[in-house]
Write a structure and sequence with these properties.
By secondary structure, this protein is α/β, with parallel strands linked by helices. The chain is 26% helix and 21% strand. It contains 6 helices and 8 strands. The strands form 2 sheets. The chain has a 6-stranded mixed β-sheet with strand order 1-3-2-4-8-5, sandwiched between helices. Strands 6-7 form a two-stranded antiparallel sheet.
């Protein structure tokens, strides 16, 4: 199911995947955040599909609309009134707002050894006293050696202490919950643009 708020020649396509209901507080927050762009935005919501399928459909609609940007905004993300303006100001192919993961990060001794030196003491101190460790939802690529001596590649979270508030941080993996992407990016990439592999089974595609 989908609902579209049509504006002719909109340059920002706002894509909102959701599960059928949103809170009043979130709806008011979204209205305040998008109000400066209401005359230039096309709003499209979609529900009833796996998240990757929903995002692919939203990209299809954005490309068909001729919009310059697609702005993914999930229905559980609250933004500041100027979030979209600040993201556009960077004028980057892909840029996301920074928000924190809802789930605590379990830090093992092996992981601790690969953390940046300036972040390690903070994480270690929290772990020793049993404080929960919540991390920003951005990740960097890194290589590590397992107990058998094999070199493996994975992602590690970017931690507090590695950046200053308001600073633009380069990352290798980001969430889509509040992300601004130039539609030209998708014109240069093959489909599917999104593919969620965790727990996927063929019936999900029907």
């Amino acid at each position: 199911m989908a609902w579209e708020h049509i504006r002719p020649r909109a340059d920002i396509f706002v894509g909102i995947p959701h599960r059928g209901q949103v809170s009043t507080a979130w709806a008011i927050n979204m209205l305040h955040a998008l109000s400066p762009y209401l005359s230039r935005a096309r709003l499209f919501t979609i529900q009833g599909h796996p998240i990757d399928v929903s995002r692919d459909v939203l990209v299809e609609r954005a490309l068909a609309s001729g919009a310059e940007y697609i702005y993914f905004l999930d229905s559980d993300i609250y933004t500041e009134p100027d979030t979209l303006q600040r993201l556009r100001r960077h004028d980057l192919p892909i840029v996301t707002a920074l928000y924190y993961r809802r789930h605590e990060l379990p830090v093992t001794d092996e992981m601790l050894a690969y953390l940046p030196e300036r972040s390690r003491p903070i994480v270690e101190a929290k772990r020793q006293v049993g404080m929960p460790i919540f991390t920003p939802a951005i990740w960097k690529d890194f290589t590590y050696t397992d107990e058998k001596g094999n070199k493996l590649r994975s992602f590690r979270p970017v931690l507090d202490g590695e950046f200053s508030p308001g600073e633009l941080v380069e990352a290798d993996a980001v969430p889509m919950g509040c992300c601004l992407i130039k539609t030209e990016v998708f014109r240069q990439l093959p489909r599917p643009w999104f593919y969620w592999t965790l727990g996927r089974y063929p019936a999900m595609l029907k």
